[in-house]
Amino acid sequence: MALTELWLVRHGESIANSAASRAELEGLDRIPIDIRDADVPLSAIGEEQADALGTWMGNHDDPIDMFWVSPYLRARQTLAMALAGSGSASTATVDERLRDRELGVLDLLTTHGVARYQPAEAERRRHLGKFYHRPPGGESWADVALRLRSFLHDALNTPGSTGLIVAHDAVVMLFLYLLLPMEESELLEFAAANTVLNASVTHIVRSDEGWRLAQFSEVGHLQREGAPVTVHPGGPDVEPE
Fold it and tell me: Which domains does the chain have, with CATH numbers?
């Protein structure tokens, strides 16, 4: 049986999420963190959020057949803690195609830092738009969508009807772009108006008419367990003036 339901979960708050938000508020050029992106762990708040996610999973009405997770530490920690908290003996498939978007030369730069150190990239971003702008050494949203198409080709034909993916905010957005589906302009408008919250759950369901969005960035499980709801838009990007 092919998948008919997908639960898309963003990892809990990481120490880089909070550091990036502080750096932006303080007008710094760089995010003060000395860990490669793949190794960034959850913050204490992120661990609370992962525990709350586990309670939600343990109380979930229908069993989830398949679990996939980004190889990045913050995502793996989120799912491991949630599975442990739910009492599930399920195992997850780690898939590198679910990793976060790579920012290349923009990595660890704030909006101020990009304007100061990479003004040419800021101009290229304004010309190309967020979807197609690929920073040197990094990826555009279109690049991420290509690897997610490959993932979906495999995942949608696995046994079982329900699956849960723990990954990153851009990955969640691009799954919606691919499955609903959306045009570039629709995706960018939706992303500008909506944030994928830490440890939030987005639910998409497939019928004969195709996929539909049932829930987006739901955090009721965090609120019920008293875990903080955190708003971190994700990796710094160059926004149009």
Answer: 5-225 (3.40.50.1240)
